[in-house]
Design brief:
CATH class: Alpha Beta
Structural class: alpha/beta
Number of domains: 1
Strand order of the largest sheet: 1-2-4-3-5-6-7-8
Shape: globular
CATH topology: Rossmann fold
Oligomer: single chain
Strand content: 15-25%
Largest sheet: 8 strands, mixed
CATH architecture: 3-Layer(aba) Sandwich
CATH superfamily: Alpha/Beta hydrolase fold, catalytic domain
C-alpha cells in the first residue's frame, strides 16, 4: 500500500504484476479491495494499478462537492504520479462512469476501455426503482446488517444468493469492519446522480468493451446497450444469469471476455 497526494487529495493505491499498464476503478460503495479476487486474472500480463478514490476506503474524504470529472482528474493525476502515461482502463458501476469521463477528458491516458455494469446517466438513461434500490443508494446511516443485506439483494441474483448462503453474512462482516464514511459517501452519490455523458459518448475514440449482467437490479442492462450504441465501434457482452457483480456470478465468462478484449488491444 502506498500513498500519493494528487489533485489536492491523498489517495491510497497499490501496484501489482508486470506488463502493460491496467487501471481498475471501483464503484460507489466499494474500494480497491473489490478487485482482490480478480487480480491474478490480470497480473501475469499487466501491471495493475488499484486505488481508493476520494471519499472511499483509506483515501482522504474531503467535505467538498465531488463530480465525476473531478474523480477522473484524480485518476489521471495518479496515473501520472506512478508513471502510467497511458493505460488500459477497466471501471465498474460508478467506476465505469469515472472511466467514461477519463476517456473523454484525458483521451491520451486511455489505450482501451472496459465499462462494466454502468450507465451514461442523464435523462436518456434507463432508471430502476424500488425500495431495495433506494436503500442501497441511501446516504443515511444504516447498520452493517442493513447495509450488507440490501447490498446483497440488489447486487446479486436471487439464485446466486440461494446457492451461496454465506454471502450475506460475509457482506455484513465486511461492512462492519469498514463502515461507509457518511460524508464521503454522500458526496460520491451526488456525483453519481449528476453523471451524464450521453451527449459526449461519441467523443470516446479508444477501443471499448461494454459488459454487464442481464439481471442487474442496480443499473439496468439497457444502459450498457446505450453505451455500446453511442460509443463508436464499441463491443457489447451481456452475461446471464448475472446481476450487478457479474464477474463473481459468471467468473469464467467475464474473464474470457475481458482478457480477450484486452489482448486484442495490447501494444
Amino acid at each position: 500500500m502506498q500513498r500519493a497526494r494528487v489533485n489536492g487529495v491523498e489517495l491510497v493505491y497499490e501496484i501489482h504484476g508486470t506488463g502493460e499498464p491496467l487501471v481498475l476503478i471501483h464503484g460507489a460503495q466499494s474500494d480497491r479491495s473489490i478487485f482482490s479476487g480478480m487480480l491474478t486474472d490480470f497480473t501475469d500480463q499487466f501491471e495493475v494499478l488499484t486505488f481508493d478514490q476520494r471519499g472511499s476506503g483509506q483515501s482522504e474524504k474531503p467535505d467538498v462537492e465531488y463530480t465525476m470529472g473531478m474523480i477522473a482528474d484524480d485518476t489521471a493525476a495518479l496515473m501520472d504520479h506512478v508513471g502510467f502515461s497511458s493505460a488500459h482502463i477497466y471501471g465498474v458501476s460508478m467506476g465505469g462512469m469515472i472511466a467514461q469521463e477519463l476517456a473523454i477528458r484525458h483521451a491520451t491516458h486511455v489505450r482501451s476501455l472496459v465499462l462494466g455494469c454502468t450507465t451514461p446517466g442523464g435523462p436518456k438513461a434507463v432508471s430502476l426503482e424500488g425500495e431495495a434500490i433506494q436503500s442501497s443508494h441511501s446516504t443515511e446511516e444504516l447498520s452493517a446488517e442493513e447495509r450488507g443485506k440490501v447490498l446483497a439483494e440488489t447486487a446479486f441474483t436471487k439464485g446466486y444468493i440461494q446457492h451461496h448462503p454465506e454471502l450475506i453474512p460475509a457482506l455484513i462482516e465486511a461492512r462492519r469492519k469498514q463502515p461507509l464514511d457518511p460524508v464521503g459517501f454522500a458526496h460520491r452519490m451526488q456525483a453519481v446522480y449528476a453523471h451524464d455523458t450521453y451527449e459526449r459518448l461519441a467523443q470516446i475514440a479508444c477501443p471499448t468493451l461494454v459488459i454487464t449482467g442481464k439481471d442487474d437490479a442496480l443499473i439496468a442492462w439497457q444502459n450498457s446497450k446505450l453505451l455500446a450504441e453511442y460509443i463508436p465501434a464499441a463491443e457489447l457482452v451481456l452475461l446471464e444469469p448475472a446481476g450487478h457483480v457479474f464477474w463473481v456470478e459468471q467468473p469464467a465468462q467475464s474473464k474470457a471476455a475481458i482478457l480477450g478484449f484486452l489482448s486484442k488491444h495490447r501494444s
